[in-house]
Amino acid sequence: MTSRYSKQPILLQGWDREEQFTFFKNFDQPFFNVHTEVDLTPLYAYCKRTQTSVFLAYLYVTLQAARTTENFLYRLEDGKPIKYDGLDISTTLLKDNQTIAFAHFPFQDSLTDFCASAQQVIQEVKSSPGLFHGYQGPDNLHVTTLPWFPFKGMEHAFQINQQDPGIPKIAFGRLETREEKVFLPLSIALHHALGDGFHVHLFLENMAGYINAFDFAG
């Protein structure tokens, strides 16, 4: 598999996930889904103050959180566990003809740079004829957004494929406002050979940390 980021093999023997990995890796459907929400209020307020895209801002903090949660860097290659040193995002975008495309947003250190790079990609994709735009390797995080209706969770389309690299899949729903707070519904699908519910918790904690860092920014 080609990749943008370097990777290291994980020695299975003696790995703390050895038994869990061996147990789950050959399941016909090895992904488990968690449906939850995050308090987006500090980041949402920052975006409104600075006229920043809320959509791109929550993709940015999602990618930051995934890159700092070790199990979200794990993948399968030839049936063996590996760890990538970094991640980008592949997200669905709605094109002008109301069909979707899968677009690559490369990682950027700052929200400003991420938004500038992503906006350029969005403009290119809107009128493009193809389904795939840009890099689509295993060192991506797969993301989609369903902003049109109340969101309680999502089950992803998948093929039963023993060569699946185990890329985490995250779906976002329509923002909800309750008691002056803004919440972002999300569904997280994680390959059970590579992580458990506790690691989803760690990801959500990391994501909350990146969101809350915008409380005093701008």
UniProtKB/TrEMBL annotation:
Q: Which Pfam families match?
A: CAT
Recorded hits in InterPro entries, A to Z, give: CAT-like_dom_sf (IPR023213), Cmp_AcTrfase (IPR001707)
Q: What keywords are assigned to this protein? A: Transferase
Instruction: Offer an example of a GO molecular function term for this protein.
Output: chloramphenicol O-acetyltransferase activity
Is Transferase tagged as a keyword? yes
Q: What is this protein called?
A: Chloramphenicol acetyltransferase
